[in-house]
Amino acid sequence: MNDLERFEHRYFCDSSSSDSVEKTLNSFEILTRISYPLPVTETIYFTYGAKAGYEAPTGLTIRLRRYASELSDIMEITGDTFLLEIKTDNRASGISVKERISISGVDAIKLFAGIDDRFSLRQRLGIGSNRQLLPTGAMQSYRCHWIHQSGLRLTFDKDIRFFLFKENLYVARMVATLGEAKLEFKFPKASECGSILEESIVAACGCTKRPPNYLGRKARGCVQMHMGKRAEC
Asked: Closest by alpha carbon to 121, among 170, 162, 88?
């Protein structure tokens, strides 16, 4: 398990502008693009479910993540290794602290459902013994990466898709797309890189800043809208 502290700023643009923004980021000589063999990010979110309005514990984001080679319409949690990420947000300082654990997808389900907490995480995170955190919704996107010598990392997520777990706790199907792409700046806590670099990149890309919980609100709204509808394959 490791802790990561950094500042995160998020911007969005219409999906129709995705290719233009990507080309603009590639044109910055001060940024180095990093390519990965598995560019598709799959993220499963844990919430308290329908009775609690699909809310997560206050101040916490708990998600299960893995990487794939292609976008898909079906997402399945298996016994394969996933990355469990627990993020604590300090809204006053704007700093996020993350803990990451490699874990079987099935074990993660059991952990937060209260069946098997071998890491004793539920108690430490203040999750009551009578509460279950369940995988209600998920997102998938094609992610591009750039880095700057200051330690700044930029990620650009396009083709953002929303999924719902309606059949059971292990299979999710796509129900909607966001219609927007996300540009995220990730500054190390110790970085002295100022806002000028960020402002120049955002101005060139034409993106709009959103609050930290913007994408989460969109995802939760999608869950609430589609939970009563039949998910299409």
From this structure: 88
Where is 81: in which H helix or E strand? strand 81-90
CA 118 to chain centre: 25
Domain 2-226, CATH number (from 2.40.320.10, 1.10.150.240, 3.40.50.300, 3.30.70.3340) = 2.40.320.10
93 pLDDT more than 70? no
Answer left, alpha or beta for residue 135, where phi above 0 means left and psi between -120 and 50 means alpha.
Answer: beta
How far the first Cα of the chain sits from its last, in Å, is: 36
pLDDT at 19 exceeding the cut of 90: yes
Q: Which of 146, 140, 117 is nearest to 129 (CA)?
A: 117
The pLDDT mean for the chain works out to: 84
Residue 195 DSSP code: H
**Is the Cβ–Cβ distance between 109 and 169 less than 8 Å?**
yes
- 232 pLDDT tier (thresholds 50, 70, 90): very low
pLDDT at 102 over 70: yes
